[in-house]
Amino acid sequence: MVRSTAEEGEENVGIVELASQNIHGLLNAEGFACPCGKIHRTEVRELVIKPGALQEIPRVVRSAGGSRVFLLADPNTYSAAARRVAVLLEAAGVPHSSFIFQEEHVQATDGALAQVLEHFTPESDLILGVGSGTINDIGKLAAKVLGVGYICAATAPSMDGFISSTSSMVMRGIKESVPSVTPHALIADLDVLAQAPKRLLQAGFGDILAKYDSILEWRISHLVTGEYYCPEIAELVRLAVRSSVSQVEQLAKGDREAVKTLLESLLLSGLAMSFAGITRPASGVEHYFSHVWEMRHLEFGTPQDFHGLQCGIGTVLAAEIYEIIKGLTPDEERALNYVEGFDLEVWHAFVRCFLGKSGERLVELEEKEQKYSREGHKRRLKRITAHWDQIRSIIAQELPTVDVLRGYLETIGAPVSPREIGLDYRQARRAFLVSKDIRNKYNASMLLWDLGLLDEVVKSLWRGKRERE
């Protein structure tokens, strides 16, 4: 990996080395030429991470070319920072208007986006989202729809999408990564972040822990489907994980430097997604547990919790599943017979029943994607069989043991099982079954389907756990 701006004779510096020295070094406008064949770049121009960073907002707004600001927040983030931001803008003579959601717990849905678009002040040329996951996702997408600039003022290190180029939204009932704008800048006031509810810190850590599985599945998908994979980006994500888990005990105590490390790890994950142009470096089947639980919450009112907390639980579940996969041996005849007997109509009826209206959309998507085609299965199965030892090696290389993962989460006080957020293992099994249908992204459930062992393995999962059936 070399800097595209390097002069002749200048020492080449990789993105991982730059990130380990200073995350700001990755904001090179010209990007980085990579051996993977891509130019990795981000549209983010500035990261302001320090105590008192809110004071910088008027300057950053002007540097982004903003002349009139549309301030976006919810009741919680308004109290945490947006009220202060409005005062700072007023004092600096920056015209602004505001939209504060009335709901205390806002969902990132097409309905919430419609509210923002309805209340947007046409004279505004920049949206300033004050918040973290939900507010940021809605704000980034609204800015894309409206064709205006966007800046994020973070209020908690709770997720990794701050500076990614997508928004994690529920659109027509399905959790999707929707192309959006990349923020011009991120302002993270450590005085604000250090006061964030502990559960939001736990959520951010859970989202980071999920990267163990996302990198594992990215590598397996590269082997099985030929999906694009970049070793440099993968190592960037590993750096983010190592940085945060090394400070888990300090983070549990609310140490400010540990909070800063967690935030920078989340930003590295977001940059990795931007560099790759896909969400794959930062999300795998562990995220799909969370997506399914959120979709069911919106459809049926079933329990859910913060996305990152659910991803942390999903990572533990994924590790338990991969422990089983590691001990399997591919049997081509069994796999071919299983797929030959797979009844797609019966499966789609289950998807519709389990997910409601959003299930219907997943059925529509499958008609386009054809992931269950016999021809596609045969191709994947041949590659799985040919690379099985390598797949098992990847699992061993990338994924810590279940006990280690649970230990990290327990140290920070985060939930480690579905029961702790009001769900049961029956719902976890069903969420895993459906996880292969959420997006056309190869993961553990699709691997087991290809092996002809999905039903058998799912029936055995978590049977030793006390269940709320």
Write the layout of secondary structure elements.
Elements: E1 2-3, H1 15-21, E2 32-33, E3 39-40, E4 46-50, H2 57-63, E5 69-73, H3 75-91, E6 96-100, H4 110-119, E7 126-130, H5 133-146, E8 149-154, E9 166-171, E10 174-179, E11 185-189, H6 190-193, H7 198-209, H8 211-225, H9 231-245, H10 248-252, H11 256-276, H12 285-300, H13 307-326, H14 332-340, H15 344-355, H16 357-369, H17 374-386, H18 388-398, H19 402-412, H20 425-438, H21 444-451, H22 454-460
Parallel strand pairs: 4-11, 5-6, 5-7, 7-8, 8-11
Antiparallel strand pairs: 1-2, 2-3, 9-10
Explain what you see.
The chain is of the alpha/beta class and 469 residues long. The chain has helices at residues 15-21, 57-63, 75-91, 110-119, 133-146, 190-193, 198-209, 211-225, 231-245, 248-252, 256-276, 285-300, 307-326, 332-340, 344-355, 357-369, 374-386, 388-398, 402-412, 425-438, 444-451, 454-460; strands at 2-3, 32-33, 39-40, 46-50, 69-73, 96-100, 126-130, 149-154, 166-171, 174-179, 185-189. It has a 6-stranded parallel β-sheet. A 3-stranded antiparallel β-sheet has the order 1-2-3. Strands 9-10 form a two-stranded antiparallel ribbon. Helix 20 (425-438) packs antiparallel against helix 22 (454-460). The longest helix is centred in the middle third of the chain and has 21 residues, at 256-276. The chain is globular and about 70 Å long. The relative contact order is 0.11. Mean pLDDT is 92; it is low at 1-12.
